[in-house]
Specification:
Elements: E1 35-39, E2 50-53, E3 61-62, E4 66-71, E5 77-81, E6 86-91, E7 96-98, E8 103-107, E9 112-124, E10 127-137, E11 142-155, E12 168-171, E13 178-183, E14 188-193, E15 198-204, E16 207-210, E17 215-219, E18 222-233, E19 237-245, E20 251-260
Antiparallel strand pairs: 1-4, 1-11, 2-3, 2-11, 4-5, 5-6, 6-7, 7-9, 8-9, 9-10, 10-11, 12-13, 12-20, 13-14, 14-15, 15-16, 16-18, 17-18, 18-19, 19-20
Length: about 260
């Protein structure tokens, strides 16, 4: 969040907040929203969790990852996304709304700035729906980002049953390389890539994230560093976003759509 269309790059080195009990919280109160919420697995046929941008020729962008909602002393709600941006919301009679509108964040993960102009959130138990409009700012021009049909599910911090679904060997037909995911312990995963590197992730619900968030694999005099890796899983398909630095010091920024082998 926000996941924008990125050019395909060679596959390099892949590819404690308790959830508040929704049963006792009403949508008009901030308590109904507290906790960690994953995007549901994107479905292009319905545009569920797919965003559009007015970039010529750009594909629609599947949205993956999570947001953590916490409450403030003033009764407002703060949302922090997994890419490092923080947003302020006001509870309304039937949901949350970005307040004030037109909040700006420099995305530390992807290295660009965007302004969210509107963001509304609704919950029903552990299910959430949302819509977002934003503008991303680039050197050449600005681009409009629209997510009309967003949906999330609240997930627990400790979710050991979620790791099993990620296990297996995965491949992106459009890019070289494979990644093998195996369960380590609890909800933790080991990811082994064709270059011999091993990375650790933590799974909650349908989403696994690099944990700890900065990891380096060293081989001889070279090193590969990952600063972000999020995987969304549906059983036989995965979406993956990876960011870091390759052995030559160049940027790693890879969006992958993986299938189980």
């Amino acid at each position: 969040m926000y996941r924008s269309p990125l050019p395909a790059l060679p596959l390099v080195a892949v590819a404690c907040i308790a959830a508040a009990p929704a049963a006792v919280a009403q949508p008009g109160s901030g308590a109904a929203y507290l906790g960690r919420w994953n995007y549901d697995f994107p479905d292009h046929s319905t545009m569920l969790d797919y965003a559009t941008e007015n970039i010529p020729g750009a594909p629609d962008a599947p949205q993956i990852g999570d947001i953590i909602f916490t409450s403030s002393a003033t009764g407002r709600v703060t949302g922090r996304t997994d890419v490092g941006c923080t947003w302020e919301f006001a509870p309304t009679a039937d949901g949350l709304t970005l307040d004030p509108p037109n909040q700006t964040c420099h995305n530390p993960t992807f290295g660009y700035t965007y302004t969210t102009t509107a963001w509304t959130v609704r919950v029903h138990g552990d299910k959430e729906t949302e819509s977002i409009t934003a503008v991303s700012h680039h050197q050449d021009t600005d681009y409009t980002f629209t997510l009309q049909h967003g949906a999330r599910t609240r997930v627990p911090e400790d979710d050991p049953d979620s790791a099993e679904a990620f296990e297996g060997s995965w491949h992106d037909p459009q890019q070289p390389g494979n990644v093998t995911l195996t369960r380590n312990y609890g909800n933790r995963l080991l990811a082994r890539t064709d270059d011999g590197c091993t990375w650790t992730l933590v799974a909650r619900g349908d989403t696994a994230k690099l944990d700890p968030p900065v990891q380096t694999c060293t081989a001889g005099d070279s090193a590969v560093t990952l600063t972000f890796w999020t995987i969304a899983d549906s059983g036989d398909h995965q979406f993956s976003t990876m960011v870091g630095t390759d052995a030559n010091g160049g940027p790693i920024r890879i969006n992958s759509e993986l299938t189980r082998q």
